[in-house]
């Protein structure tokens, strides 16, 4: 998925070519040549997994802090259900989601929707 708002940078000075990121990238968007990683932008879906699996912190998010997302056209909050337990029982989940959307989010999706989809379409 080509994106002019590519949110991940790769610092080749930190990369030692360990191939950890290749093994975990869900779209096979990473290659390593001459001990340096390279991202094939057309295959990258910007999931950010490479950021968390690189032991040398060669991948970095270019978005720093919540304000950094304002430059992106789509701001989607993936909401963990654990957040609902942080409020008292009078505050309904939809109120919490509405409050999150009011912070300049384009949309909210609950993490549990992914589980629903997997259950509905197991193969
Ligand atoms: S995991 Fe990090 S150090 Fe290893 S190849 Fe990928 S970018 Fe380079
Ligand atoms: S952001 Fe996701 S799809 Fe893109 S290179 Fe990293 S792991 Fe692969």
Structure characteristics:
2 domains, 123 residues, two-stranded antiparallel sheet, elongated, binds iron/sulfur cluster, Alpha-Beta Plaits, 18% strand, alpha+beta
Q: Summed up, what is this model?
A:
This protein is α+β, with helices and mostly antiparallel strands.
Give a verbal description of the structure.
This protein has 123 residues and is α+β, with helices and mostly antiparallel strands. The protein has 2 domains: 8-66, Alpha-Beta Plaits, CATH 3.30.70; 74-120, no CATH class. The protein is built from 4 helices and 6 strands. The protein has helices at 20-24, 49-53, 93-101, 111-120; strands at residues 8-10, 30-33, 36-39, 59-61, 76-79, 107-110. The strands form 3 sheets. The chain has a two-stranded antiparallel sheet with strand order 1-4. A hairpin with a 2-residue loop joins strand 2 (30-33) and strand 3. The two termini are 23 Å apart. The mean pLDDT is 89. Bound molecules: iron/sulfur cluster (2 copies).
Topology:
Layout (H helix, E strand, L loop, with lengths): L7 E3 L9 H5 L5 E4 L2 E4 L9 H5 L5 E3 L14 E4 L13 H9 L5 E4 H10 L3
Parallel strand pairs: 5-6
Antiparallel strand pairs: 1-4, 2-3
Bound molecules: iron/sulfur cluster (2 copies).
Overall 3D form: elongated
Number of helices: 4
Q: Could you say which small molecules are bound to this protein?
A: iron/sulfur cluster
> How many E-type strands?
6
Q: Alpha-carbon distance between the termini?
A: 23 Å
What is the name of the CATH class of the largest domain? Alpha Beta
Output mean pLDDT.
89
Tell me the domain tally. 2
DSSP strand (E) fraction? 15-25%
Rg (CA only) = 18 Å
């Amino acid at each position: 998925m080509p994106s002019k708002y590519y949110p991940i940078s790769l610092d080749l000075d930190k990369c030692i070519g360990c191939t950890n990121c290749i093994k975990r990238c869900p779209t096979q968007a990473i290659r390593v040549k001459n001990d340096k990683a390279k991202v094939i932008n057309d295959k990258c879906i910007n999931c950010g997994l490479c950021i968390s699996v690189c032991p040398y912190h060669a991948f970095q998010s270019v978005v720093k802090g919540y304000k950094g997302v304002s430059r992106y056209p789509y701001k989607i909050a993936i909401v963990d259900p654990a957040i609902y337990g942080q409020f008292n029982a009078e505050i309904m989940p939809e109120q919490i989601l509405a409050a999150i959307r009011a912070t300049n989010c384009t949309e909210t999706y609950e993490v549990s929707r992914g589980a629903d989809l997997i259950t509905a379409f197991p193969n």
